[in-house]
Each structure stands twice: as C-alpha cells, then as structure tokens.
C-alpha cells in the first residue's frame, strides 16, 4: 500500500485526530530518545484497536506496539509502518476484590486503586513505571511480588485482530516472559484478583517500597529502567559496579552512579548512545566475570 492508501484505511478505522503522521517517538519513551513513527495510532476503543490490527494484517503493514515506553529503546531511525499506542485506553474499575484495568493504564495507578479499595496483593507494583499491557508482557515484578501472583485473566487481540481471553495459566507467565510476546498477542485488558486488607497496612507497605525505590534508583534522570535481566546466581548491577563501569559514558548516555543497573540520559543522549553503551557493558562484564548479560529492556526500530 502507498502512504496515502494506508492513511485512508486508518481513517476508516478511527478518527483522524487519533492518527499522527511522522511522529517523533522520543516524546513517548522514558529515555527521551527515538526516531519517528510513520503512523502513530491511538485507538480509543477495543473495536478501533481490532480494526487497526486487522488492517495491518490484511495489508501486510508492519505493526509495532508501544506501551508507555518505560522499558524500551527506540532506535534513532524510528519505526516503519504503524505504531499502536494505548494512551487512550486507561480505565481502571473495581468490583469486590477484583480490579480490572485497560492496557494503557499505569500499573502504579492500578496499585493505588487497589489501595483505595482496601485490597492487598498489588503493593509490589507501586513503583513499577510501566503500563498494564507492558507489565503483563514482561510479567513485571519487584520486591518479592509479580504479576503472575495476582492476575486472573486478560483480554487480548491476536495479530489477525481477533479478540480472545486467556487465563493466568494460559498466559504462561514466567520470569520476564509470557506467551504474549511469544505469540505476538496484544493486551487490551487485565483483571486482577486480590484480597481484602487493612488500608493503613497496605499504605505502609507501599510507602516503604516507594522509599526504597526512590532512594536506590536514579529517578532524577530519564532512563529505560533496569537494563539487564538478572543472570543466574548473580546481580547485574553488582557485576557492572564491580567492573568499574559506573559513570561510564557514551555521548550523554551514562551508567548511573546511583544504581549500576540503570543507564541514564544526562542531556541529549541518542538511542545509538544507549545501544553502544549496553554493548560495552556486556563485553566488559563477559571479559571480567565470564557472565553474559541479557537485556531486559526491549530495543526496537531502525538504525
């Protein structure tokens, strides 16, 4: 399809105001880096999302999902085709001991809604910066908790645009992985089954975890969060620290002095700076400790 015909097809699926052309993705990532998207599409309903996915599948247009950009690096060449962004699907509802949230809702917001409802189980998520959709894809976790412990079911789209519902077990949630990424499914909604608790006890736990996060993580600078997965029998940050890599820079991308597992943007870092620094860290740690560091952050787009 030509660019004109792609745009016309998208106009049939959702309002023109929900279609952005040649949109810089640095405005949508936590690193504040990234090139342009040919089409950034922001559906407001599940039906619109399904229609866009169906168009992409039928016409063989590349389709990329963009959550809230918290654990993501978009290369400087940007992304061709359609980028689907769920910033208009952020509703959070509570019913009894259940909290159900749309894919674009911040997982932090879901944990706060649980607190408001005096529900326990999502305290661990009070400092995770990602969206609900991203949290499910990665089975996000922190401080002894993870999504798999509290998720009941999820509504998703297949790459053909079909709406399906999968249970916790069917999602095959494991350490930083799930069937969602393996099958390239698209999260629309997640429902969490929690337990009734004491408001003050829940709040105290969330306050404690928030303090731990703020005291240990370099939140004063843009970053992509924890860059590397935890290697077996090791901690990535400790290996990087013991390699003498803290405050190592490529351009304006820097290994954080506060937490070696983070790379921060000290000014005008590019995605290329980030990717180059990641490779330097991996090479250094491998040479020094014979340990391979694998990225937790997702790197997408063109150079």
What report would you give on this structure?
With 303 residues, this protein is α+β, with helices and mostly antiparallel strands. The chain has three domains: 3-85, Uridine Diphospho-n-acetylenolpyruvylglucosamine Reductase, domain 2 (2-Layer Sandwich); 92-205, Uridine Diphospho-n-acetylenolpyruvylglucosamine Reductase, domain 3, CATH 3.30.465; 218-300, Uridine Diphospho-n-acetylenolpyruvylglucosamine Reductase, domain 1. It contains eight helices and 19 strands. It has helices spanning 3-13, 46-59, 107-116, 132-137, 179-182, 199-216, 236-242, 271-289, and strands at 19-24, 36-41, 63-66, 72-74, 79-85, 92-95, 98-102, 119-120, 141-142, 145-146, 151-157, 163-167, 186-193, 195-196, 223-226, 249-250, 253-255, 262-265, 298-300. The protein has a five-stranded antiparallel β-sheet with strand order 6-7-13-11-12. It has a four-stranded mixed β-sheet with strand order 1-2-5-3. It is globular. 44% of the residues are buried. The model has no long low-confidence stretch (mean pLDDT 95).
How helical, in percent, are the residues?
25-40%
Flag low-confidence runs. none
User: Given the helix and strand composition, which structural class is it?
Assistant: alpha+beta
For the secondary structure, the number of strands is 19
Tell me the Rg in angstroms.
Answer: 20 Å
Question: Mean pLDDT score, rounded?
Answer: 95
The domain count comes to 3
> Mind telling me the CATH class of the largest domain?
Alpha Beta
Distance between the termini: 23 Å
Alpha plus pi helix count: 8
Largest sheet: number of strands, sense, barrel closure: 5 strands, antiparallel
Q: Under CATH, the topology of the largest domain is which?
A: Uridine Diphospho-n-acetylenolpyruvylglucosamine Reductase, domain 3
What oligomeric assembly is this protein in? single chain
Task: State which percent range the strand residues make up.
Answer: 25-35%
- Listing every helix as H and every strand as E from the N terminus to the C terminus, the arrangement reads HEEHEEEEEHEHEEEEHEEHEHEEEHE
Shape: globular
